[in-house]
Design brief:
This protein is of the alpha/beta class and 516 residues long. It has three domains: 2-106 and 344-512, Beta-lactamase, CATH 3.40.710.10; 112-175 and 280-341, D-tyrosyl-trna(Tyr) Deacylase, Chain: A; 203-274, no CATH class. Helix content is 32%, strand content 21%. The protein has 15 helices and 22 strands. A six-stranded antiparallel beta sheet has the order 2-1-22-21-20-19, with helices on both faces. A five-stranded mixed beta sheet has the order 17-8-6-3-18, covered by helices on one side. Strands 4-5-7-16 form a four-stranded mixed beta sheet, with helices on one face. A hairpin with a 2-residue loop joins strand 4 (121-122) and strand 5 (125-126). The two termini are 17 Å apart. 42% of the residues are buried. It comes from Ectothiorhodosinus mongolicus. One of its GO terms (molecular function) is serine-type carboxypeptidase activity. Keywords: Carboxypeptidase, Hydrolase, Protease.
Amino acid sequence: MLKLMSFVCRQAWGIRIVAAVLALQIVMLPLSASASASSASEVVPVGLPDSMVRMLESQRISVQNVSLWVSDAQGNPRIAHNVDVPRNPASLIKLHTAWTALETLGPGYRWETGVYTFAPIVGDVLQGDLYIRGGGDPWLVSEEVWKLTGALRRQGIREIQGDLVFDLSLFDLEPEDPGAFDGQRFRAYNQPPHALLMNFNALRFEFRPDADGRSVRVTTDPPNSVVQVDNQLRLQPRSCSGFQRGVNFQVVDEERVRLDGSFPSTCREYGLLRTAVSPEAFAYGLFREMWQQWGGSLNGQWRLGALPPEVLASLRQDRRSDSETSDAQEAYEPLVLHRSPTLAELLGGVNKRSNNVMTRQMKLAIGLEKYGPPATVEKGNQTLREFFAERLPGHGEIMLDNAAGLSRTNRITARQLAGVLSSAQSSLYAPEFLSSLALSGVDGTLRERFVEHPAAGRMRLKTGYLRDVSGVAGYVNAASGSAYTVVLMINHPGIDHSRGVDIQDAILEAIYEERF
């Protein structure tokens, strides 16, 4: 108890949450007596326990804006409060996307990026263009691009005299304003899907006081010579605090960023992760940087284009058939075929770290697998809705327009989401699904929660937050050894991230200690 109070007191609004946790310590004797009188096969679900009601009221959260589902290992609901009210799940919807991906694509699924040329290679010189066919890889990060360029260099090519030609035809996407959801168009989490998305199209701008003590040194990770940085920052003697540490970030045009404002001299380093240029310009700059690291040179620029029709036809035929490769197909073999890590390896990015960009890329692969190329947003959304209806008949429909949760119109009930969790847990791929969830006090979005608490490592959960939305869902192994499936969704005006986390933790602790 003292450890718990110490933990919650460290929160920003400590006094109020201590009151909330103390309220949850009240033992509900009539409820306990009733539960003990019932056999396991006669478990009757109850509404929100009085202790939780008092805690929520103390935080000025209406119980009408809260849904809570708790069921035991046999699937018997133990708490069922507003479980059929459709709510905005925020990132909790990623649970359904991840489950659907595992079941439709399989844990061994890999994305492929092909590198082609149709120009002569004389000695170590490619006398023409190099084509890169985007495959929608959600994990084409700088390390993977380094591997791709290294594999190309091992083909004996050193100099590329032509252009980089990007074939993006696998995706057919409408233009999307990255800032449409929340006005933050250059935040990395808002990057739209793309057939050739290298490093999520994101640069980390790193700031450090220069050795002269008078200026601010700015570098980017990964290095990208396409992005020109106009550094107007001033060094100022003050504490290392404040919004963006005083850095004002502006994208001036397609390839130029301006940084101004004052940066604290007491900051050893600080970083901003931003999207600054188009995915095509970014891919060109990153490819060129990695190619040069392998001793290669690139003379041309980038442009969009498609592989010849006969090559695309052979790729479509290859998708439809597992039969032996024909002579025609062999003629169109890529110089390099880069394959991503498996879906099972990447799924932690979706659930543990709640990566929006990866999730949206995976959704397109789901639709592509069912309906064929080109991949579209609607094919992906439709597949997710249909999969839910097929696997959970009788659970009604879900409203889904964004598989990552960046939506004000997504709707799902706590009972429906509990159905997803129960089905995933009984799936052939349950180990892969479970291992993709954040572990309390250990990793992902739960890394700093329940640290040095008996519940550390005993909860596998997905978290979700938006303005006015807070939620958590997954599995809790109670102190007694009993296992519970939990879905908590709060849609309440003004609930912020910090308050949402503390309410979640208080309820999760009550479930861990079986105080219901």
